[in-house]
UniProtKB/TrEMBL annotation:
This is DNA replication complex GINS protein SLD5. It comes from Struthio camelus australis. Its main location: nucleus. GO terms for cellular component: GINS complex. One of its GO terms (biological process) is DNA-templated DNA replication.
Amino acid sequence: QEANLKRAKKGDLKVSIHHMEIERIRYVLSSYLRCRLVKIEKFFPHVLEKEKSRAEGEPSILSPEEFAFAKEYMANTETYLKNVALKHMPPNLQKVSLLKSVPKPNLDSFVFLRVLERQENILVEPETDEQREYTIDLEEGSQHLIRYKTIAPLVASGAVQLI
């Protein structure tokens, strides 16, 4: 887009519209990346633990840059805790498990999704004990609001997309 703008005439109305579109795209991308970084900062021990426990052929949920950021963030957090608080504690309290200290992501939260590939017999967990479990079929192109842990494997496989 930027190369096209350089070739365009200076006074053309299309140039300003294309400039606005480029700025909008930059804003959306940086907002998306900021959101990912906030989630990594909030759940960093769990993200790194999941990264360690993934199978050999399984794709990573983090980009190499995000993985490096998460590792550095964890190292900096541990160093900060040791220097500021833990060194002043009794020896038996100087170790802290960040995995136990940091809250886990809420996999029971509901998410919006778009179905990319038809899925049949998806087991939906009941909201209360009085309701029975039932299965649903997800039609290609349909949109749903479902608990994340129900469709997490489908998100990982690329069969559904979160919106």
